[in-house]
Design goal:
This protein is an alpha/beta fold. Helices cover 51% and strands 19% of the residues. It is built from 16 helices and 13 strands. The strands form two sheets. The chain has a seven-stranded mixed beta sheet with strand order 1-13-12-11-2-9-10, with helices on both faces. A six-stranded antiparallel beta sheet has the order 3-8-7-6-5-4. Strand 5 and strand 6 form a beta hairpin. It is rod-shaped and about 110 Å long. The two termini are 50 Å apart.
Length: 373
């Protein structure tokens, strides 16, 4: 520059330092995440960590647990089939085995027995077999209640009930077999209706370009019927609790970014394995602790709010970085004196400081727009 050159160099140096101050870039992500998380919390969606916002915005597959997530989680006993024709006796035995269980299906059986004025005396020595059923002691006999797989593993033939049970399963009902020692006594079916908003949620997820699946321990007929009713296109059924995380890992191995939505103790490993674990806040504490995102409402439509806010937040972060970098790319050469040889203008440090402040205000203002998301 012109004489005195040192003064011009000093002014240019200070201006460059001011313009290059990375305030806007430093604010680009945390301000958007803070405002986005706050807006989500107002709608009953809690992001336990900031990265969950970005990860949820990038997912391409949503997998739902069935009971308590897509369905009400309050099943009712709908059908009884006793091999010897005595339905009350069958229900009495089943209720005794389930008397101390906290499982929703167990509650449905016990309530049905009491509705028929059946006195329920709890069985002794009850042992739960995860994902399969229970074993209990009734006087000198061993009682087994559970899935068809449980009966097969116990060497009990279920062929006599197959036609009836398949008809129940086609209607989306969950089936429970009852056996005494090695003798099949019959089967029961419970119906757990879809939550209000489940179909709407699945349709909206498809409209967002996401693949939607269901992961269930029920038999394939029942899971397929629920999937058909709700509009889900991917069904993984007859999965034991410890296999749920493996199924999520398998989908991830296919290159998919997976969000898993669940509410039960058995869902915790899958919630932890998924790219984003979405826990229903009305579910168990274990599931909530394992989730990255908590939906405080039991309504599955809350997931749509979470996705919408996550996508808006990621878009805002990208916009913030664009303007922050564009500001630096445009003004650093000006501050360095690129225009001085042509116009004789040198950016004043006061204007540089003002421009730096304005860039930060633009980033913060852009992030605050998320409050209206």
């Amino acid at each position: 520059g012109t004489s005195p050159a040192l003064s011009h160099a000093f002014v240019a140096t200070v201006s460059v330092l001011l313009i290059a101050c990375p305030c806007a870039m430093g604010l680009a992500t945390p301000t958007a995440i803070m405002v986005g998380s706050g807006r989500a919390a107002e709608g009953g969606v809690l992001f336990r960590r900031g990265t969950a916002l970005e990860l949820l915005a990038r997912i391409d597959t949503v997998i739902f647990d069935k009971t308590g997530t897509l369905t009400e989680g309050r099943p009712l006993l709908t059908n009884l089939y006793a091999v010897d024709g005595d339905e009350d006796a069958l229900l009495t035995i089943a209720a005794r085995g389930e008397a101390h269980s906290e499982h929703p299906i167990a509650h449905a059986i016990v309530q049905a027995a009491r509705a028929r004025n059946i006195t329920v005396e709890a069985a002794t020595k009850v042992d739960a077999v995860p994902g399969l059923g229970i074993c209990a002691q009734l006087e000198d006999k061993t009682l087994r209640l559970g899935s068809e797989r449980f009966m097969q593993q116990s060497g009990i033939d279920t062929a006599t009930t197959r036609e009836t049970v398949n008809a129940w399963a086609e209607q989306g009902r969950s089936v429970l077999y009852v056996a005494e020692d090695k003798r099949l006594l019959g089967a029961l079916a419970v119906s757990d209706p879809l939550k209000e908003g489940s179909k709407e949620t699945v349709a909206a997820l498809h409209a967002m370009g996401l693949r939607v699946g269901i992961l269930s321990g029920d038999n394939r007929h029942t899971a397929t019927a629920i999937a058909r009713e709700s509009g889900i296109d991917l069904v993984v059924a007859e999965v034991l609790p410890h296999q749920k995380a493996d199924e999520i890992k398998r989908l991830q191995g296919e290159g998919r970014r997976v969000a898993f939505v669940g509410d039960g103790i058995n869902d915790a490993p899958a919630l932890a394995q998924a790219d984003v674990g979405v826990a229903i806040g009305t579910g168990t504490d274990v599931a909530i602790e394992a989730g990255d995102v908590i939906l405080m409402r039991g309504d599955p439509r809350a997931l749509l709010d979470a996705l919408r806010i996550a996508r808006r937040t990621l878009s805002t972060i990208r916009g913030n970085f664009f303007w922050a970098y564009a500001y630096n790319v445009a003004l650093i050469p000006v501050a360095a004196g690129a225009l001085f040889p042509i116009t004789g203008l040198l950016l004043s440090p006061m204007l540089a400081a003002g421009a730096m402040s304005v860039s930060s205000l633009l980033v913060v203002g852009n992030s605050l727009r998320l409050k209206s998301a």
